[in-house]
Write a structure and sequence with these properties.
By secondary structure, this protein is of the alpha+beta class. The protein contains 2 helices and 5 strands. 21% of the residues lie in helices and 23% in strands. The structure holds zinc ion. Zinc ion (ZN) binds next to loops.
Length: 82
């Protein structure tokens, strides 16, 4: 993942007092960002790709617990070149 985005993500975690302890297994440093993903949202009738709500995915290296944080909540525009 892009260095600047990782830096912003890590700063945001600090501001929000989000700990890096895995809630599933208790391992430290679960919050290593893996990738930005843009899942389609289910609107009730179909999957809407127009408003995908991009997120940063983080995975615990010990147990595989996965968490997602919305870029919108961090004030980050995506794609960044828009
Ligand atoms: Zn874990």
């Amino acid at each position: 993942m892009e260095h600047e985005l990782v830096t912003k993500f890590n700063q945001w975690l600090e501001v929000k007092n989000i700990t890096r302890t895995c809630p599933a297994c208790g391992a430290e440093h679960w919050a290593e960002p893996q990738q930005v993903i843009a899942p389609k949202r289910f609107t009730g009738f179909l999957w809407d790709a127009k408003d995908p709500q991009p997120t940063i995915e983080t995975v615990c290296p010990n147990c595989g617990y996965t968490a997602y944080f919305r870029l919108k909540s961090m004030g980050i525009a995506w794609p960044p070149f828009r």
